Amino acid sequence: MSPRKLVVTVLVAALALLGLAWPSSAVPAPAAPVQTLTWTAGNSTDHYLSAPATAVAGETLVLFKNTEALGSTMTHTLTFDTTTPGYNHDVDLSISANPYDDQNGEHQATITLTPGKYRFHCVVQGHEKMVGELVVTGEPPVDTTPPTVVANVTGNKDTAGNYVGSATVNLTATDTQSEVDKIEYQLDGGAWTTYTAPVVVNAVGSHMVHYKATDTAGNVSPEEMASFAVVNPKPGDTTPPTVTASVAGDKDAAGNYLDTATVTLTAADNDGGSGIDKVEYKLDEGAWIAYTAPVPVTAPGMHMFHYRASDKAGNSSAEGMEHLTVVSSDTTAPTVTATVAGTKDADGNYVGKATVTLAAADAGSGVDKVEYKLDGGDWLGYTEPVAITAVGAHTVAYRATDKAGNASAEATSSFTIVAGGDTVSPATSIVVSGNLDADWRYIETATVTLTAEDNAGGSGVDKIEYKLDDGAWTTYTEPFEVTGLGAHSVWYRASDKAGNVSGEKGGSFLIAAAPPGPDLCPDSDVRDTVVLGAADSQVENRDVGTGCTINDTIDDESEYASNSQFVAYVRAVAQELVDNGVISAQERDRIITAAFDSGIGGTSDFVKPQPKNPGLTKLEKNSARYL
Fold it and tell me: What per-residue confidence (pLDDT) applies to 607?
């Protein structure tokens, strides 16, 4: 009994003791849970400071905090993945937060979670390692709705609507609850075939394509049909088509196009008669592209627009060319401003740290890039606010360039950073934890925890840094795991808000592999292929990763009420093997077909083979293995 059904049963019993009862028509379902989940981010580009790992299904309030108080000086996002297979894709959420935005980096949103697993990550460039998973529990809805499937027939048509030379049938299916398991089609009364790619039909004559789809819950869509005819192209066409180009747009006095030149192609096959098959173009040295609509050319500079056409008889026109030049009408440079933020003393100096934020705007072609340089250094691309902690006088120079190439005049902002009176560096310590073997080696993984205190200095710890083995120095935010087998060393240091840095310390440890696990099937079925009863699937009988083979895993020796029941059981086991990466989807289908052909559970004359061990059925062995 599920936890949900158990709660309802207890409530019904309690009401019965009070002389009350639920209405006889139905027991009301409990209300969907309302919960709050919080994510936090700091000054790291490889992980969130904190993130929930589990939740319950239902309406959920999401809080995303990326604040200066958490040590952040950069933009992060909390984005739910909607494309990677194996995860729920029903939440479209992407929150961008910066400590200096109008919410001071604190944002919230309301979403609805369903049972399953979600993947979340940061989409800011360079932050790809900030990723995690959220497992949502609850009762999933029962899927009884079949998928929908549609057919789209494409190709070149004559005036009567017939496809000339060939027709291509494209099938697509969707399912609102489960995922689509397979699409099948039948061409002109032939055998049902699994659809994997568009079907090209080039036989001359009338055709009918029947099609249907099945979801992973076993629901099958109603069978539908598309009809069409394929005819031969007109014979005797040896004349290539004609194609011309015209260019439109606003011009300057020199004949250059301002901002955009739009190229329109026109093709005809009046002399040949077979009709236009395709028109193509390429811009400068690019690839040939099918022409479907007028082409806007916006990149400033000189361009060569190439074009050609071919008819349905295979005749191609000579390549044509159109020369054009595009210039920008934008001659105004962008504007750029700087804002310096931080805690000031009575003299206007920044205590411990100053953060410089740059903002640029361009009413014409748009801002292309913003750059800055600190104290006469090299120009750097600006992407987010810059935190400066070095004590002393500083000058930040900055500029912006728009997409038309106009650059703003260089501007500067000057300020001074002073220490807060703290001259004592923080104290640091390290703890390495994990399971040890008899030789004091960590088994499989070791967890490194670093701590720092600034009790003597008083300004407070600003950051802890570490480097693993020969890696780069990395900001420490939480304990991290080391999994590589062999010897490892960790170096670490800390700095306080006054700029004092502790001396580097180091430690080393060893990681060893875990001893091999027990063989769960010592008396394994090692036949070469997966055989169900007398039906051979021709799928390799490989080990599933526990010492057991696929034949050990599928129980074909128990009693089943019907062949359909046995096939449903085999379908579930085979899908789990697909999910675990043991077999492919095609091998799953062959195993399911063998289950159908085996006759197990049916009323045929099939004679079931005797178990290799009459004292213990395969079902009992499998049950024991999973207990």
Answer: 43
From CA 105, how far away is CA 66, in angstroms rounded? 5
Instruction: Please spell the DSSP secondary structure of 255-275, one letter per residue.
Output: S-EES-EEEEEEEE-TTT-S-
**Annotation: CATH topology of 35-137:** Immunoglobulin-like (2.60.40)
Is a pLDDT exceeding 90 seen at residue 191? yes
Beta strand pairing status for 276-283 and 261-268? unpaired
Alpha-carbon 312 to chain mean position: 41
pLDDT in tens, 297-338: 988 889 999 999 988 887 888 899 999 999 888 889 999 999
Q: Is 572 exposed, middle or buried (0-12, 13-18, 19+ CB in 10 A)?
A: exposed
Structure tokens at 98: 């910066």
Domains 242-327 and 427-512 in one fold: yes
Among 564, 565, 592, CA closest to 576: 592
Give the pair of three-digit tokens for residue 319. 């390549």
Lowest mean pLDDT of 19-28, 106-115, 237-246, 391-400, name the range.
Answer: 19-28
Instruction: Provide the residue ranges of all domains of the chain, joining segments of one domain with +.
Output: 1-27, 35-137, 148-231, 242-327, 335-418, 427-512, 529-626
Buried b (16+ CB within 10 A) or exposed e, 442-471: beeebebebebebeebebebbbbbbbbeee
Q: What is the pLDDT of residue 613?
A: 40
Residues 6 or more apart whose Cβ sits within 8 Å of residue 123:
77, 79, 94
Residue 32: what pLDDT?
Answer: 42
Tokens, residue 1: 């009994």
Report helix, strand and coil shares of the chain as percent, to nearest 5: 10, 40, 50
Tens digits of residue pLDDT in 560-587: 999 999 999 999 999 999 999 999 999 9
Average pLDDT, the chain: 86
Chain centroid offset of residue 15 CA:
48
**Can you point out the beta strands (E) in 71-222?**
76-80, 94-97, 106-113, 116-121, 131-137, 148-154, 163-164, 167-174, 180-187, 193-194, 199-201, 205-215
Which numeric CATH code is attached to 242-327? 2.60.40.10
Percent of the chain topping pLDDT 70: 88
What does the alpha-carbon distance between residue 420 and residue 497 come to, in Å, rounded to a whole number? 8
pLDDT, position 87:
93
CATH code: domain 427-512 is 2.60.40.10
* Three-class DSSP category at 621: helix
- Which residue from 493, 448, 451, 501 is spatially nearest to 474, judged by alpha carbons? 493
Is residue 238 scored above 70 in pLDDT?
Answer: yes
Cβ burial of 350 (10 Å; 0-12, 13-18, 19+) is: buried
Say how far apart CA 248 and CA 257 lie, in whole Å: 8
Domain at 335-418: CATH architecture: Sandwich (2.60)
Residues whose CB falls within 8 Å of the CB of residue 343, separated by 6 or more in sequence, listed in order: 350, 351, 352, 353
Q: Which architecture, in CATH terms, is 148-231?
A: Sandwich (2.60)
Q: Residue 450: what pLDDT?
A: 95
Q: How many residues does the structure list for the chain?
A: 627
pLDDT tops 60 at residue 154: yes
486 CB-near residues (< 8 Å, 6+ apart)? 510, 511
Task: Give the number of C-alpha atoms closer than 13 A to the C-alpha of residue 625, restricted to the C-beta side.
Answer: 24
Q: Is 145 helix (H, G, I), strand (E, B) or coil?
A: coil
